[in-house]
Design goal:
InterPro entries: FAH (IPR051121), Fumarylacetoacetase-like_C (IPR011234), Fumarylacetoacetase_C_sf (IPR036663). This protein is of the alpha+beta class and about 400 residues long. It contains 13 helices and 18 strands. Helices cover about 25% and strands about 25% of the residues.
């Protein structure tokens, strides 16, 4: 594992914020739990004196002043390399610091069907009713009929509306085409606050699912005012068979134990990482199985059909507020069709698959696949966080 690629240059440049579980002996006020951290020049620093949560930090207009002052209240936790090693679930020592997902009380939102390639796969899932055996034939029919016609279509445009009417006449209109080229994006709640897993953890797929995949995505860090202040990487683990059977199963397809991975850290916007960098980011995916299976693919933010700002504006408006801010999965081009076993059955995960999602300026998010009922249960929720915060304040 090349650690200088997990956090590019070991955070020698850029502003890197996240969360780290810190044991009692090293913890702020000796209260073990999730501490807000700043990673700089290969060292992890504790920001607990200033911030109880990363939500509090991203919504603070003055957090950069805290980082730019020499302050004895910002204490060193450990070297980043040590923490990265201990963050891998296989050799984790609970008595040493390890990374958590960088988000906490922020809402975890996602936009789907934001790339044409994945849009077509969603239509195929729907037509196949979640049966991967039918997907190959339907894929050929769909792509030959409408595939090329969707490229360079701006969602909600006059051209898109005319195309919508043509497709309806052809009898192939779909709810996925509606959100793919219509005026309103698909926006859904991917997971719950505090439920995401981080770098090195196991992600979960439901034991009843036989057709599922990772979705490598850029994840925006957004304030409660709707300002994009940073980004990270995410894995929107998806049960294709569940969603294909019915769109009303989207919640089950998307939100299970360990189905949301975010990390390794937030890279905040600054002079080294701009909105242009974010909009042109290339996201790579590698899946390596114990059976020798290897799949590599990539997703290009430059091909997204709605800009990051447009997606944020569809999430937060006068109609819906997020007082803690939110993180937003932007969608993916990745929709694997490579057979993994029986011909025509396409791709699905197997236990112990290693999933590596990477981008040159955002680092690497590495996780391993297991069943949702076999990985650690989600136990640290809002009540636990409130209790933890009060203890650190000396109230309890």
């Amino acid at each position: 594992m090349e650690k200088n690629q997990i956090i590019p240059g070991m955070a020698n440049e850029g502003t890197w914020i996240g969360r780290c579980h810190i044991p009692k002996e090293l913890a702020y006020r000796n209260i073990a739990g999730p501490h807000v951290i700043w990673v700089h020049m290969g060292t992890v620093y504790d920001l607990s004196h200033y911030f109880n949560s990363t939500s509090e930090l991203i919504n603070s207009p003055n957090y950069k002043k805290v980082l730019n002052t020499e302050d004895s209240k910002i204490t060193e936790v450990a070297k980043l390399e040590e923490i990265l090693d201990n963050s891998l679930f296989q050799n984790r020592d609970e008595n040493k610091p390890y990374l958590l997902s960088p988000n906490d009380s922020q809402a975890i939102k996602a936009c789907g069907v934001t790339f044409i390639k994945s849009l077509l796969e969603r239509v195929i899932e729907e037509k196949a009713k979640g049966d991967p055996r039918l997907a190959k034939q339907i894929r050929c029919e769909i792509t030959s009929t409408i595939g090329e016609g969707l490229h360079n279509v701006r969602p909600g445009s006059e051209h898109a509306m005319k195309l919508k009417e043509e497709l309806k006449k052809m009898g192939i209109w779909s709810q996925y085409l509606e959100v793919g080229i219509g005026p309103d994006a698909e926006v859904f709640t991917k997971s719950q606050p505090f439920s995401a897993v981080g770098f090195g953890a196991e992600v979960g797929v439901h034991h009843d699912s036989s057709w599922n995949n990772p979705e490598p995505e850029v994840v925006l860090v957004v304030t409660n005012k709707g300002q994009i202040v940073g980004a990270t990487l995410g894995n929107d683990v998806n049960l294709r068979d569940y969603e294909g059977r019915s769109a009303l199963l989207l919640g089950e397809a998307k939100d299970q134990n360990g189905s949301c991975a975010i990390g390794p850290l937030y890279r905040m916007l600054d002079e080294t990482f701009s909105m242009e960098d974010l909009k042109t980011a290339k996201v790579s995916l590698k899946i390596a199985g114990e059976d020798g299976f290897l799949l590599e693919d990539s997703s290009d933010m430059g091909e997204i059909s709605r800009s990051p700002e447009e997606l944020v504006n569809q999430v937060l408006s006068d109609n819906h507020q997020y007082p803690d801010g939110f993180v937003l999965f932007c969608g993916t081009m990745f929709a694997p069709t490579l057979d993994r076993g029986e011909e025509g059955m396409g791709f699905t995960h197997k236990i112990n698959d290693e999933v590596v999602i990477s981008s040159p300026k955002l680092g690497k998010l590495i996780n391993w696949v297991n069943l949702t009922n076999q990985i650690p249960k989600w136990e640290f929720g809002i009540n636990a966080f409130v209790t933890y915060t009060l203890e650190r304040m000396g109230v309890k």
